[in-house]
Amino acid sequence: MAFMALVQLIQKEQERTQTEQDYEQAINLYTKAIELNSNNAIYYGNRSMAYLRTECFGAALRDATKAIAADRDYVKGYYRRAEAYMSLGKFKLALSDYQAVATVRPNDAEAKRKAVECSKIVKKVAFEKAISVETKSIADSIDFESMVLEGDYTGPTLEDGKVTLEFMKELMDTYKKQGKLHRKYAYKILFDVKQMFTKQPTLIEVPIPDDSKFTVCGDIHGQFYDLMNIFELNGLPSETNPYLFNGDFVDRGSFSVECIFTLFGFKLLYPDHFFMARGNHESHNMNQMYGFEGEVKAKYTNQMSQLFTEVYNWLPLAHLLNNKVLVMHGGLFTKDDVTLDDIRKIDRNREPPEDGLMCELLWSDPQPQNGRESSKRGVGVQFGPDVTHNFLKRNNLEYIIRSHEVKSAGYEIAHEGKCITIFSAPNYCDTMGNKGAYITLKGNDMSPKFTTYEAVPHPDVKPMMYANSLLSMMP
Fold first, then answer.
1. Are 147 and 184 in contact (CB under 8 A)?
2. N or C: which end of the chain has fewer CB atoms below 10 A?
3. Is residue 136 part of a domain?
4. Sheet of 372-374, strands arranged across
């Protein structure tokens, strides 16, 4: 009776999650079902799907593999595993699973299409690797000075090649009306901001005067109209209203171009009062899958998407606020002896590696129990309260701020108040129903205060519009 009751509860939960997107509850229910029947491929397959939607790609991969082991003919297991491999950038392994589906279902047009698309990606990656030896910088090959403004262009213009507050206000107004920044100015902003980032260290030290406010924002993920709402609520960036945006500015949301040029513009306008950290989505592999590369190509050129990769490679990895609070996108490390000097020494000008300090800064997540575990994402590590406390003690810090995870309230305080997660993209991907949040601090006590907000309306352009078609919802 207990087992049948649980099955009925899962069925009801599936119906509810179609509207409420409560994937965490679905994971919990399927976990209970698996405890009662560990050989049911469907339970593993459905929990794998829930893990995919919560971006726990490593856990999704493990469950899909278990589903296949339980039933070699369970086709959805191969689909799930392929999507997990794709999300982790393991395209050859994904191709193998898509081909397996196409083999057992020769008349399945969707399976055949996915196999063909994945094969194209594998060949493209191999080609890029083959020609990548000592290629010239894209920034050095762009002659934006010779680009001509068309007579019908009515958007914002740089003043003597420089970003001004008036330019930024016109830019945001143009974007709100779904207008476009001219390519001449877009390239100039990218060129200038790259020059700025290359001169900065990997770990930025940020002093906050005693009576000054400082704002920390988490993931934005291409949700431009929610970014504008933050500025409505908290004021525009300025020398007296400094901000730190803690990574994942792009991907998923389909207004990523608007977000990134707004943020880069403010960085150029207020270089010492506006800060940006790299997230795991500021990388070529992620942009290729989750929409930013496709969006840049649609709105500008492939050349510009390559230039963005060069800029992202120079983004700082962490910020140290008043020598008391360390801010990074992901989290802490597999090693116990990491110091701030170790972070300073990281060679960041590259695609994020699959392990090591740089990877963990961008990908790791906290967990409630002590110790460390393999990450559910399949990259980075999960770290417990003891790991956080030891790191803080070793480096004479008070607490850490990180982002990287959707939280229903927009934020979460964990590890006895020593590990704070901030997530600033409300109703993430138009489906998750979460609030967004940002943190404000005062220099005199560095005590975090949280402001939460709901999503605001945006034009009828769906998230993931520009993403790789293989990441559409699986069957």
1. yes
2. N
3. no
4. 365-366, 381-383, 372-374
Which tens digits make up the pLDDT trace of 199-226? 999 999 999 999 999 999 999 999 999 9
Indicate whether 370 and 312 sit together in one domain: yes
Active site residue 281: yes
Amino acid identity for residue 194 in this structure? K
On whether both 31 and 146 belong to a single domain, the answer is no
Residue ending a domain, among 131, 153, 187, is 131
User: What domain range includes position 61?
Assistant: 1-131
Do 178 and 294 fall into the same domain?
Answer: yes
SS3 state of residue 421:
strand
pLDDT score at 406: 95
What is the band of 18 on the pLDDT scale with cuts at 50, 70, 90? very low
Of 182, 273, 281, 404, which residue is the catalytic one?
A: 281
Q: What is the CATH number of the domain that holds 97?
A: 1.25.40.10
Separation in Å, CA 249 to CA 150, 246, 281, 343, 352 = 30, 8, 8, 22, 16
Burial group, residue 425, by CB count within 10 angstroms (0-12, 13-18, 19+):
buried
DSSP conformational letter for 370: S
- Tell me the pLDDT tens digit for each residue of 303-355: 999 999 999 999 999 999 999 999 999 999 999 999 999 999 999 999 999 99
Q: Give the number of other CB atoms < 10 A from CB of residue 416.
A: 10
pLDDT in tens, 365-389: 999 999 999 999 999 999 999 999 9
- Do 153 and 119 lie in one domain? The reply is no
- By the 10 Å C-beta count (0-12 exposed, 13-18 middle, 19+ buried), 83 is classed as buried
Per DSSP, 423 falls in state B
Whether 109 and 172 share a structural domain: no
Beta carbons within 10 angstroms of residue 366's beta carbon: 24
**395 found inside a domain:** yes
The number of folded domains in the chain is 2
Give CA–CA dist 149/127, Å, rounded: 35
134 Rama sector, left if φ>0, alpha if ψ -120 to 50, beta otherwise: left
Residues 69 and 196 in one domain: no
